[in-house]
Structure formats: C-alpha cells, structure tokens
C-alpha cells in the first residue's frame, strides 16, 4: 500500500506511465481492472474518501477538491508530463486538473465521460431513444417503471439501481458481477457530495485555452454520454479527437477490450 498526502494507488502493467482517475463517482479503482490490458504502467488512484484513501469528511469530496491530491501524487511520483485517463465522473477532476496544471499533462483521455462539469445536462430525448432501443431485452419489462422515473428526473437510488443494465452492452453474468462489485464499494450520497454546491463548471473560454490533446471515447450504445453528446463536448477542446466504440456501453473495456486498447494506445502513441 502506497500513500501520497493520504492518497493510495495501485500499479499494474508495464510501459509508459498512465495516471488513472476513477469514476463512480467516488469508486475505488478495482472496477477498472487493467483497462482491457492497456500497454502502459497504470497508476490507479484511490481518490480521497475511497478504497485505501478513505474515509473522508463528505464536505471534502467535491470533485474540485481532489485536484491538488492528484498534483501531489504526480509530483511525488516524478511523472512530468504525464498522460492522464479518466472514466465517467472522473472526467470532472481530470479536466479541472488539466486546466490548472496544463504543463504537467501530455495527453488527456476521457472515457465515456460525465459531461456535467462542462455544463451539459442529460438529453432526455436521447435517453428515451436509447432505452427504447433495448426494449426487446429480457430484463427490460422489470425496469420499465424505473426508466420512466429516471426520465422524469428521479434521483432516487432505487430507480438508478434498477436501470443499471443500460450501462452494460450485455447484461450477462460478467456484467452483473461487475455491477455488484461497484455497488458494494459505492459511498452513500456520493453524487451529491461530489457535485456539491460551489463545484465549478468549465467555461468554453477556459477550455479554448487548453493546449492539450484530448480524446473522448464514447460507447456506441451508451446514453450518458451519447455519442452525439460526446462529439458536441469534444468541440469545446481545441485539440480534440473522438472515438465511438461500436456496440459498447459505459464500460467499453469490458465490451471489446481489443478495440478499446487499440483506440487508447493509438492516441497515446500518436
């Protein structure tokens, strides 16, 4: 177990270092596995309050309060500049980190990123279309009411838990086990604490000045974000690339590890 200013991390793989910010929000990094076998030395961070870096005061879990933890770890590890990868809600931290410390970031990879910290709300029409596109799946009838509640704006944990199958391209045994593992480590009120009042929203003007290559990787059947939303968000970054992984949902390294691995590795090697 290794700590940096209270921040723990795991290291996996070999190759150039890749600093990894988990999503969730506020999940320990074990749910990421080895990210489809990316050919890199993964530095998988346990954010404050999570995994071996927990517990923490909920008032200290807002996403922008993690940025200097990341910088302290990067500096101690001697990673300068470093490639930075974030999944889902972790994108809020990674984008804000790159804005504050652009000289320390070589390339930024945002995997099925939450766009909330960019000021994007959910597109309800696209969410409904995504839901209806999977209406022939055997689990759909049991979650239909929860889908309608979520589309109506429900923030209830039970409704969001019910729609978990939509975050996976295949709701098979492996996906169900992955979902159970995520649920077991999920912090109470994580989203409310992570996006608490005062959390910054990156402006187009700020992002226009970010001179860092950015890859947004979206899942072809993901709804948060949809491929269209990811492409719209990418245009806020001056040096952007977009990859839509066919048939993938919110955890694309599970759906097609080879495609995911090649897409990210090609971007980092370019």
From TrEMBL:
SUPFAM superfamilies: alpha/beta-Hydrolases (SSF53474). Coiled coil: none annotated. PANTHER family: HYDROLASE ALPHA_BETA HYDROLASE FOLD FAMILY, MONOACYLGLYCEROL LIPASE. This is Pimeloyl-ACP methyl ester carboxylesterase. It comes from the Bacteria. Residues 39-257 form the AB hydrolase-1 domain. It comes from Lentzea atacamensis.
